[in-house]
Backbone:
């Protein structure tokens, strides 16, 4: 990825101060999604390391991970698996509790979403502390997935999420980093 593209990509992400609470700068990718060239280039860059590889499924974390994950699944000719918050999927599910900054939450996936041994890329818009992604990887592994990578448009490196995922033995692909949180 060229430095020019990285700068263009960063510029296409809206910063919303003090959301969802004071002191937080929310990185809003809806502006990137609304720019066809930026969206296409972001997907192409996220997919690039796995072009030509056998990827069976792309798993996207609710909600922006669905948008990015669907586009990536299309690019690599794979299926798509939604990972949702508890109670949102209609069929029999497997769930995983994961740590939040203050407390815990649960995510779920359909019990039959993955055939054991399938190669899966996990996708979301942003990685911060890595709690949700860590829970998603554990959940996918619980149902037999081989998680071959985790892809995020944005990394907040000060919060350590990407390092946490790498420590789980999963390669991480991010496109841009923003300081702070």
Residues:
């Amino acid at each position: 990825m060229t430095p020019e593209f990285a700068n263009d990509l960063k510029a296409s992400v809206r910063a919303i101060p003090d959301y969802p609470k004071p002191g937080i700068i929310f990185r809003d990718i809806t502006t990137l999604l609304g720019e066809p060239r930026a969206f296409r280039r972001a997907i192409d860059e996220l997919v690039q390391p796995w072009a030509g590889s056998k990827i069976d499924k792309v798993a996207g974390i609710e909600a922006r991970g669905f948008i990015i994950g669907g586009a990536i699944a299309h690019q690599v000719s794979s299926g798509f698996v939604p990972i949702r918050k508890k109670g949102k999927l209609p069929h029999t599910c497997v769930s995983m509790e994961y740590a939040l900054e203050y407390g815990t939450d649960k995510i779920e996936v359909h019990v039959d979403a993955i055939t054991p041994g399938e190669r899966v890329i996990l996708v979301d818009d942003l990685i911060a502390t890595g709690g949700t992604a860590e829970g998603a990887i554990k959940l996918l592994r619980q149902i037999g997935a081989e998680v071959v990578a985790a892809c995020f448009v944005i990394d907040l490196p000060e919060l350590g999420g990407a390092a946490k995922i790498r420590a789980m033995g999963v390669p991480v692909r991010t496109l841009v980093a923003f300081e702070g949180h």
